[in-house]
C-alpha cells in the first residue's frame, strides 16, 4: 500500500527515491496489492449476480490488465488496440465486453471473428452493419444496445447520458430499435446498457442512479418483450482528488445496490447477471506519477518548480475535463513530513504556457533533484495524455508487489507494451532467495 506517513513516500514498503534511482524519472508506479484489495473488496461486497468489468481505458498496461483479470474481473474494451491487448493476453472472449460509438467495419469484423460475447451497439446503422457482416460469416450474433435515457445522472463529475450524446440510442427510440431488430436475420438483442455518469463519490447518488437504470430496463423488458440475458448499469464509481472530496463509502453503496438488484429480479421474474464497469475505482488510488525537479526560479513574485515531465504525461492535472482548474493531490515525495513554506507553480518541460500541473500550491521548500509526485494517478494518467506532444519520451511504468518492483513499460513502448508476467517474475524472485 502507498504509505504517505514516512519522510519519503513509500509504495509497497519501497521508498519512491529508491525506485527513482533504479528506473529514473519520469515514472508511473503502481501498487499491485492496492489493486488486489479493490478487486477483492468489490467482489466480496457486491451482489452475487454482479459481474465486475475492468475498463481498460483507465489503464491499459497489459501486466496490470492480466493481474486484474486473474483476480477474477472481466474486461471492458472499446478500441482496436485494447482488443490487441486482450488477444495478446489470450483472454476468454466470454469475459469481454466491447462497446463504443464509432466502431469501424474492420473493427467489427475482428470482434466477430474473436467471438466476443458481450457486444454493445450504439446506433441503428451500427446494428445494420453488424447484421451484414454476421451474415457474410453465417453467424447469428447476440448483442446489447446502449440506451441514452431521458434522465441525467445526479452528482456525477462527467455526465454521459440524459443529454444529446453520441453514446447510445435515445430512450424515446426504444420501440423503433426493437422493431428494426426484427428485420435483421443475423442479430438478436439480449442485453441493455446504460451509463449515465462518472466520478461519483456519493453512495446515495450511485444507488439512486442504479434505481433509475433498473426501472428503465424493467419498463423496456415489459414493453418490448425481448429475450433479456444481461443488464449493464454502467459504473461511475469515483475516487477523491480535490479538497472537500470524500472517499466513496463502498460498503454502503454495495448494500444499496444489492437490495435494488433483489427487487429488480423479483419484479421481472429472472435472475440476470448485472454488469458494473469500473476503471478509476479499481486502479486510480494505486498509482503515483513521479518527476524530478530540474530547476526552480522566481518570476514576477511567483515561485516555479520545473519538472522533467508535465501535462504530456498527466494531462488531467493540467485541467483536462474540468470546467475549473483544481490542483490534484501533489506532494514533494522525498519531503513528505516537512512543513509547507510557500506556494509554487509546478510546470513541466514543454515549450507551451499550458504545461502547468499546479498553481499556487503550498509545498515544502523545493530544490533541484527533489521528487514531485501526483498521487491517485493510477487511472487516466498516461492513457489520457498527449504523449506525442513535443515528442518527449514516455515515462516508465513500474509495478510493485510484496516489496519488489518490476518494469512494465519502458520509455519507447508507445502502443501496447510487452507483457511482463507477474507470476513468472514472482517465481524468479522466490528462486533467487525470496522477498526482501
Describe the fold and architecture.
- With 436 residues, the protein is of the alpha/beta class.
- 29% of the residues lie in helices and 25% in strands.
- It is built from 11 helices and 23 strands.
- The longest helix is centred in the middle third of the chain and has 22 residues, at 203-224.
- The radius of gyration is 23 Å and the shape is elongated.
End-to-end gap: 16 Å
Q: DSSP helix count?
A: 11
Unreliable sequence segments: 155-161, 432-436
Rg, Å, rounded: 23 Å
What fraction, in percent, of the residue positions are helical? Answer: 25-40%
Sheet-strand content, in percent, reads 25-35%
How many DSSP E strands?
23
Morphology call: elongated
Provide the structure class: alpha/beta
The main pleated sheet reads as: 9 strands, mixed
Overall mean pLDDT stands at 92
Oligomeric form? single chain
Give a brief rundown of this model.
The chain has helices at 16-23, 32-45, 62-70, 80-88, 105-114, 124-136, 174-181, 203-224, 250-268, 280-283, 422-431; strands spanning 2-3, 10-11, 14-15, 27-31, 50-55, 74-77, 96-98, 118-121, 141-148, 158-159, 169-170, 187-193, 197-198, 230-232, 274-278, 287-299, 302-307, 330-332, 342-347, 356-363, 371-374, 396-401, 404-409. It has 436 residues and is of the alpha/beta class.
Amino acid at each position: 500500500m502507498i504509505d504517505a506517513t514516512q519522510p519519503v513516500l513509500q509504495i509497497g514498503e519501497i521508498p519512491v527515491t529508491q525506485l527513482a534511482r533504479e528506473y529514473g524519472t519520469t515514472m508511473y508506479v503502481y501498487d499491485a496489492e492496492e489493486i488486489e484489495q479493490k478487486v477483492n473488496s468489490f467482489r466480496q461486497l457486491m451482489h452475487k449476480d454482479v459481474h465486475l468489468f475492468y475498463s481498460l481505458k483507465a489503464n491499459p498496461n497489459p501486466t496490470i490488465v492480466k493481474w486484474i483479470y486473474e483476480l477474477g474481473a472481466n474486461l471492458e474494451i472499446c478500441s482496436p488496440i485494447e482488443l490487441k491487448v486482450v488477444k495478446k493476453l489470450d483472454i476468454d472472449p466470454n469475459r469481454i465486453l466491447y462497446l463504443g460509438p464509432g466502431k469501424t467495419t474492420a473493427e467489427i469484423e475482428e470482434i466477430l471473428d474473436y467471438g466476443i460475447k458481450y457486444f454493445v451497439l450504439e446506433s441503428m446503422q451500427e446494428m445494420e452493419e453488424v447484421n451484414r457482416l454476421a451474415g457474410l460469416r453465417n453467424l447469428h450474433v447476440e448483442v446489447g444496445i446502449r440506451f441514452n435515457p431521458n434522465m441525467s445522472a445526479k452528482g456525477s463529475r462527467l455526465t454521459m447520458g440524459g443529454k444529446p450524446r453520441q453514446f447510445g440510442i435515445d430512450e424515446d427510440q426504444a420501440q423503433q430499435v426493437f422493431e428494426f431488430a426484427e428485420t435483421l436475420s443475423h442479430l438478436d438483442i439480449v442485453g441493455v446498457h446504460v451509463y449515465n455518469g462518472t466520478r461519483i463519490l456519493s453512495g446515495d447518488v450511485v444507488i439512486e442512479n442504479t434505481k433509475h437504470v433498473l426501472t428503465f430496463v424493467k419498463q423496456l423488458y415489459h414493453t418490448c418483450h425481448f429475450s433479456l440475458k444481461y443488464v449493464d448499469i454502467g459504473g461511475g464509481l469515483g475516487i477523491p482528488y480535490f479538497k472537500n472530496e470524500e472517499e466513496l463509502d463502498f460498503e454502503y453503496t454495495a448494500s444499496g445496490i444489492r437490495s435494488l438488484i433483489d427487487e429488480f429480479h423479483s419484479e421481472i421474474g429472472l435472475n440476470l447477471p448485472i454488469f458494473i464497469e469500473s476503471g478509476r475505482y479499481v486502479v486510480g488510488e494505486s498509482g503515483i506519477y513521479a518527476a524530478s525537479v530540474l530547476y526552480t526560479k522566481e518570476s514576477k513574485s511567483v515561485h516555479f518548480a520545473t519538472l522533467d515531465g508535465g501535462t504530456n504525461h498527466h494531462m488531467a492535472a493540467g485541467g483536462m475535463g474540468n470546467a475549473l482548474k483544481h490542483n490534484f493531490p501533489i506532494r514533494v515525495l522525498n519531503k513528505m513530513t516537512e512543513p509547507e513554506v510557500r506556494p509554487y507553480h509546478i510546470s513541466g518541460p514543454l515549450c507551451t504556457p499550458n504545461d502547468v500541473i499546479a498553481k499556487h500550491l503550498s509545498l515544502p521548500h523545493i530544490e533541484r533533484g527533489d521528487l514531485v509526485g501526483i498521487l491517485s494517478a493510477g487511472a487516466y494518467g498516461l492513457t489520457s495524455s498527449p504523449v506525442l506532444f513535443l515528442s518527449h519520451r514516455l515515462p516508465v511504468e513500474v509495478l510493485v508487489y510484496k516489496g519488489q518492483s518490476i518494469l512494465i513499460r519502458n520509455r519507447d513502448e508507445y502502443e501496447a507494451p510487452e507483457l511482463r508476467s507477474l507470476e513468472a517474475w514472482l517465481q524468479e524472485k522466490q528462486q533467487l532467495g525470496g522477498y526482501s
